[in-house]
Structure formats: structure tokens, C-alpha cells
Specification:
Elements lengths: L3 H12 L6 H12 L8 E5 L7 H8 L4 E6 L2 H11 L5 E5 L12 E7 L8 H11 E11 L3 H8 L13 H10 L3 E8 L2 E7 L2
Parallel strand pairs: 1-2, 1-4, 2-3, 4-5
Antiparallel strand pairs: 5-7, 6-7
The structure holds S-adenosylmethionine.
């Protein structure tokens, strides 16, 4: 496998098999409920993959809210579209986090679930995420693993073997540099959540 995008495209067809575990999906539902999203909000899910987070985000924002979900891997988006293209308040697109095609201040919240370690240019991506958030908007970076567990998990796949979460100090530096404040990081077995907001 030459690069990450090829790896994710090649993984798309079987990606949902990872979530055939009730304990994991219940955990994700519980995790999203802690994001404090509100009915009527517009949420951008970046690196959505096959859209595993979409039903939970929809539940949080309700029928008056909207979920925009993007990924750079076309095959992931294809599968996501087969599941969610007909849902009225969901939109899907092929986009790269480092170069988002949305007007400034479009979203109340941005979620990155399982994405952050894979970003090739974290500075550029964070700058884009900040740009598309409304003032007061929230950035939620989350994983169903701790940073150490992610490291061990990725080590088994050569193309993503070096994809790790920055340590807390570096994460804070990157977020501050991109214009985020109120940074809170929880890193514990089975959960990584980094919350911050655009002033
Ligand atoms: C580990 S998967 C997580 C997918 C999904 N959020 C989930 O938890 O099932 C990471 C996803 O991020 C996407 N991705 C990686 N780098 C990206 C980038 N720079 N821009 C957009 N998507 C990206 C990959 O194609 C992949 O679908």
C-alpha cells in the first residue's frame, strides 16, 4: 500500500465490520452525548469514513439541525452515501481536511473521530477547522482508544504505523496556534477526547 488514502479506500468495503460490536456502538453513542451538541446545530464531521458517527450526531442536532460529513477517500464516501444520501438533513462530500471547501463560519461544531493522527498536515487542517467554525463553535477530536492504545493499534499497519496523537503539550500548542481556546484533553484507557473552541 503506497499511501494512507489508498489504505482507507482499500479498507472501505469492510470498514463497518469494525462496528458490529454492540459494546463499541453503545460507547460511541454515550461519547457523542458528552459533546453537548444542541438541537438545530450545524455539525461538520471530518474524516467521516463510512459515517459511523452520523446517526449519533443526527440524534443530537435533531430534525432542525444538519450534519455535513466529509472524507478524502472516495470509497468511504461511496459507502456513506449508500447509507445516508437520502436522509434530508445530511450532506456528504469528498474533501480533504487541509483544504475544506466551505465558507468561513459555517458550522457550530466540528467532529474528528479517529481522524487526527492520520492528518498529514495538522497545522493546515486545524487552520481550516477554525476557519469554518462560527465564533463560539466547538472542535471535538475524539477516539474510542487512548493515545497509547492508538499508537499500539496503528503500529500493526505499516502505512499508518507512524500516525500518532501529539502529546498533550504539543496538542495544546497546535490548537492555540490555530486560534482555539478552552482546551481540555481527556486521555484514558478506551477514550481520548480533546475539546476546544473558537473564541
Ligand atoms: C480511522 S478512519 C475513521 C473513520 C470514521 N470517522 C470512523 O471512526 O469510523 C480515518 C478516516 O479519515 C479519513 N482521512 C484521513 N486523512 C484525511 C484528510 N486529510 N482529509 C479528510 N479525510 C481524511 C480517512 O479516509 C478515513 O476514512
Amino acid at each position: 500500500m503506497k499511501n494512507r488514502k489508498e489504505y482507507f479506500n482499500a479498507s472501505a468495503a469492510t470498514w463497518d465490520q469494525r462496528y458490529q460490536n454492540r459494546e463499541l456502538t453503545d460507547f460511541i453513542g454515550q461519547l457523542v452525548s458528552t459533546f453537548n451538541l444542541k438541537p438545530g446545530q450545524k455539525v461538520l464531521d471530518v474524516g467521516t469514513g463510512t459515517g459511523i458517527l452520523i446517526p449519533y450526531l443526527l440524534k443530537a442536532v435533531g430534525p432542525t439541525g444538519h450534519v455535513m460529513a466529509v472524507d478524502y477517500a472516495e470509497k468511504m464516501v461511496e459507502i456513506c452515501k449508500a447509507k445516508y444520501a437520502s436522509v434530508p438533513n445530511v450532506s456528504l462530500g469528498i474533501q480533504r481536511a487541509e483544504n475544506l471547501d466551505f465558507p468561513p463560519e459555517s458550522f457550530d461544531a466540528v467532529t474528528c473521530f479517529g481522524l487526527f493522527p492520520h492528518l498529514e498536515n495538522k497545522e493546515a487542517a486545524l487552520k481550516q477547522l477554525n476557519r469554518v467554525l462560527k465564533p463560539g463553535g466547538k472542535l471535538i477530536i475524539a477516539h474510542a482508544l487512548s493515545s497509547e492504545e492508538i499508537k499500539a493499534h496503528h503500529r500493526t499497519v505499516s502505512v499508518v504505523a507512524h500516525d500518532v496523537l501529539p502529546d498533550k503539550a504539543e496538542m495544546k500548542r497546535l490548537l492555540k496556534q490555530a486560534g482555539f481556546t478552552g482546551i481540555q484533553i481527556t486521555d484514558e484507557p478506551g477514550r481520548y477526547v480533546c475539546l476546544s473552541s473558537k473564541p
